[in-house]
Request: fold
Amino acid sequence: MNKHVFTDLEKEINRIGHLNRRDFMKLAAIVGLTFSSAQESKAASNARGKIVIIGGGAAGLSMAVRLKKRLKNPDITLIDPSDRQFYQPGFTLIASGVYEPNDVWKKQEDCVPSGIKWLKDSVAAVDPVWNQVSTVNNGKIPYDFLVLTPGLVLNWDKVEGFSYDRLGQGNAHCIYDFEGAQKTWKALQEFAKTGGHGVYTDTYTKHKCGGAPKKICLLTEHYARKQGTRDRLDLDYFTAEKALYDVPYYTPRLLEIYNERNVPIHLNTRLKGIDLERKQAHFEQIETRGDEKVVTPIVEDYDFLHFTPPMSAPRFVSEAGLSWTEGKLAADGWVMVDQETLIHKKYPNIVSLGDVAGIPTSKTSAAVRKQVPIAVDNLISIMEGKEPTKRYDGYAACPIVTDYGHVLLCEFNYAKEPETSFPFTLLDTSRELWPAWLLKVYVLKPLYFYGMLKGLA
Reply:
């Protein structure tokens, strides 16, 4: 195992809190079993071709390092403008005071694999007919094969009355942003002291880490209990979906938790706008009665608001004709890829995965970890003139933090069936678990930086 993993683990244990011997042994077992699941190395391929990767996040960097290892003569260009690589699942832990801001990022230059040409630039357009990418500062970049992993866009302006530069104003917060997570933690502590009405929302589009709004809601509730001020808070959770969660194995316990903690759930209700001056959240409750869609406006006064903005693929994706044109995945520009092979359905020299991919699974780093080896194998098969044979079953994981010390570890596939990873197959994952908290807080971040981004897990 990479020595940096142990260094990071020791740092986290010393900083976050002491573990007794029993808990340390559990943690060691989780780490060992997690890293032992890394795929075995395969024979290098003689396939040739210029590969361009758009996006240097979890999917893009993981693809780059694995393709470099698998090709004898790699010719790989990565296009990404970022200065820092963020472990985004850690934003929730910043917003709840478990992590410090500097715990969740590293310099991008330290994460890009050696031997990869990195253009620190943004993409303006893609021409899939002429096989070229137009950048803002480096002109047109030709490719033989394209890996499309630009992530997604947070559309702050689609919430009426709001823009990114107003994040935190009117006590309206969002943990999907690095600065936003820090502001949330400060506001959460003050809210627990002063009390009032807390409103929490998801959004009506597909969005990364669908569990994040649920997590910060439950962590706020538990934080107030720990401070002895829970009776000062009145919390409400609003979801645009018809159910709180759509994976039947985990939903009953999640509903019980919300009920036990007296947090009402409002279904089929989407956030339309925010009046920051008056501290009012404007919703639309959408119900279908027969063939008629009935929209009821709702206004909620709040003292603390956590909301999720609508999300979509970057504009250049749909402008290039790479998005779905019909179905549920069309409206927000998600890439039209085969959900099993991750190959574009119109342009077979393009693979797409991660948040931008138009596939019916959750947008999480755990999903990316499973997608990458399949996308690499299938891309190399195409480069060799063969049919892609590897299949992705839609695996995703969402560790829903239910309190400081427990996580409901949701792992599932396209069929919304549980797909539990060892050693958690030995436990009842339909309920929240302390070992899953150890995984979330101590293991997954070093696994990301020193396993996944290094092609080792």
